[in-house]
Amino acid sequence: MSGDLRVVVEADGGSRGNPGPAGYGAVVKDAATGEVLLERFAALGTTTNNVAEYSGLIAGLRAAAELNATRVEVRMDSKLVVEQMSGRWQIKNPGLRPLAAEAAGLVATFESVTFGWIPRERNKDADALANRAMDGETESAPQRPEAPAAKSWAPPSLENATRLILVRHGATAMTAQGRYSGRGDVPLTDEGEAQAMAAAGRVAGLSRDVGAVLTSPLARCVRTAELIAAEVGGMPVTVLDDLIECDFGLWEGKTFAEVQEGWPREMAAWLESTSVAPPRGESFQAVAKRVRGAMAKIVQAYPGQVVVVVSHVSPIKLILRDALAAGDAFLHRLFLDAAGVSTMDIWPDGNIAVRSVNETAHLR
N or C terminus: fewer CB in 10 A for the chain? Predict the structure, then answer.
């Protein structure tokens, strides 16, 4: 199938005992006609309801990807999964975080994915499949590997993983003054150059075998990327437009205090929701969409390689938010220093492991 395919994924999972014998089911339907396009179900051994529900979601997203779907509407009767994947609830159970991260990685491969809760009686198709799995029936279609139990998950092998070294650009005059710096093309200061050189040394310490250095098109990132590339082998720098900073619109060049004074209601709404954009600017939801697309392209283009990504505060925060399956509050609580370094691994199947966030020892 090709083109703009919109599908509905109905997913469910269950456990007879919690933990107990568990299974999941997922149905992919054409959004326009309701026609069932694919079904997936499998037993999971002994685990919990929540693990089974996340497993159903992952199976449904994978099935949608097999159909080359572009837009996905996920419907589940699990309030927990829907709220956590929507970013409104924190994921407190460490056993669920790897599954949520895997689901988030799959979400990033589509143009759009929405999550909605439905009552159990409206999720009967997926529920029936989950019960068939728990009853011992098997499906001939390929299945995802057995989901890990909550206390037994271990990091996967690094084989075939793309390692991303995320670097924020060095300081500019706007950085030093605490001003919103979006699309304005300001250069690094002398301090910023020194920070970028220090970051280059840290990147070289992490890996001399770098496959690519990718950067936002703005000068402060390009210069940072050039210094890193020179340190790890003199490779060319590749510009990726989707790594550009958020467009802060009328707030460009303003401090937080100036924005609060001049646009108090707009600022409050912006802090409350990632769907709200600054006046004449860009919402974090819009930034997230293009950055997810960029990440998907990077993983596809550089499997098993080390890739340096030089970008800005907003794109890097959004990448880390998705990787950690965190809520939107994460965006306002995480601080990223100029020339700070974060590291994560992404596997082709969507698994993610965050290794470090905002390393700054090289700047001291």
Answer: C
